[in-house]
Amino acid sequence: MANFLKVFVFLLLFAPLTSYGHKPNQSYIYLRVYEKDGIEGRFEINYVDINKILGTNFDKKASYSEYEPYIEQLQKYFLLHTSFNSTYGDHKISYTDAVKHDVGLGSFLKLNFKLQNSLKVPDELEVEYSGIFEKDDTHRGFLLIEYNWKGGVINNEAMISLSFTPNDTKETLSLTETSVWNGFIAMIQQGVWHIWIGLDHILFLLALILPSVVRRWNDPSVQNYNGSKMDVDKSSFITWDWFPVEKFKPAFLYIVKVVTFFTIAHTITLSLASLQIINLPSRFVESIIALSIGLAAYHNIRPIFKGRDWIIAFVFGLFHGFGFASVLSDLGLTSEFLTLSLLGFNIGVELGQLVIIFMIFPILFFMRKLKLYPKVLVYGSILLIIISLYWFVERAFDVNLLVEDYLRKEGFKLAQFLGLR
Question: Rounded to the nearest 5 degrees, what angle is found at the Cα of 191, between the Cα atoms of 355 and 321?
Fold first, then answer.
């Protein structure tokens, strides 16, 4: 049980601070399968293996300009050591460009390519790969399907499909396990995941949820759940002009309604942005999203729209939708199955939000009659305002105030102290 709690605490507090990184002594082939545009891919090779291939002496801080004179030589090397074939014949590699990529263990080069003769996607690909094996027999090569919508694979960087060793350089990749349903379910999963890892979206939801279990005694819009004015003895009010709601279900349904307005709003702008009808600058959108947390929290202290929390959820949900659009762009989605992608992603976001509500609301409902709760509400909202302003300044003025770097550093120290790293 103790180990489980350690893992849970680590995932909750420190997982967002870690980043994906390639392991040394390994090279990678990533493939992206499109129904209409065929198959694209890339090789990813770290600086250590580049030195083995070229006899160079790059270090992990090598810049693109240092690699650039050798890129054509590297491309030719992997052409000689890689092949793709299917029942449709030979799928030759056609290079497009090269990009330097930095991860925790140092710099990687990405050699991007397209597979010729792949507009009609084959059921199987026979892949042969022997890169770097003659230089290092302990080296391993891996092939991953990064994107295959009908295969239910979106932005995969972890699930390996094929592995290659010096004694096993030829493998067969199956592409037959595909259906529209797989892609739709994968987009729902992406929606759930991206609301869970989007700390700014979660804090905005938290600002909306905090006041859901209490009401202001002097708010003229406050009514009981039978529709008549509440008849409550003022002497029984909790301090700071708040009193607790009496019933779980009406309060819960109310916050679900508020959050659903948030979903409706971001669905509208996510669709408009994905269809290239309206596009706003990312810096502007991210700044407004940061500011939305503070304004929603300020509304808890001094109401902006009395009794109409859904207005805040809807108005700022429009900007959060543009933020989600950048997520879909990062996933590399094209126009194929765009309607189903948008539908699945939005369903996933709504489900992710409901899970957050299911986790937080019962705890708040249990706490609502404690004299401490109004202070939790007010001081919690003040903390959210501070975080909001911090993010707003960073995003609006494109500066790093270093607070997050400090917290990350201290977080790793705490993780080490707890034996989590």
Answer: 105
User: What residue type is assigned to position 229 of the chain?
Assistant: K
Q: pLDDT-based confidence at 221, cuts 50/70/90?
A: very low
Q: Has residue 368 got a pLDDT over 80? A: yes
- DSSP letter for each residue of 150-173: GGTB-S-SS---EEEBTTB-EEEE
Of 174, 163, 82, 160, which Cα lies nearest the Cα of 121?
Answer: 174
What is the strand order of the sheet 170-174 is part of? 89-90, 82-86, 124-129, 170-174
Residue 227: phi and psi, rounded to 5, are 100, -5
pTM greater than 0.85 (yes/no):
no
CB 336 within 8 A of CB 150: no
Q: What percent of the chain has pLDDT over 70?
A: 83
Helix H or strand E segment including 147: strand 140-148
CA distance 102 to 20: 11
Q: What is the pLDDT of residue 417?
A: 72
Rounded to whole angstroms, how far apart are CA atoms 293 and 89? 55
User: Residues 309, 315, 317, 321: what is their CA dihedral angle, to the nearest 10 degrees?
Assistant: 170
Burial class (CB in 10 A: 0-12, 13-18, 19+), 129: buried
Instruction: Give the C-alpha separation, 55 to 104, whole Å.
Output: 23
Rounded CA separation 338/267 (Å): 13
Cα dihedral 171, 175, 176, 178 sign: positive
Other C-beta atoms within 10 Å of 166: how many?
Answer: 15
- Sign of the C-alpha dihedral computed for residues 260, 262, 268 and 273 taken in this order: negative
CB 49 within 8 Å of CB 60: no
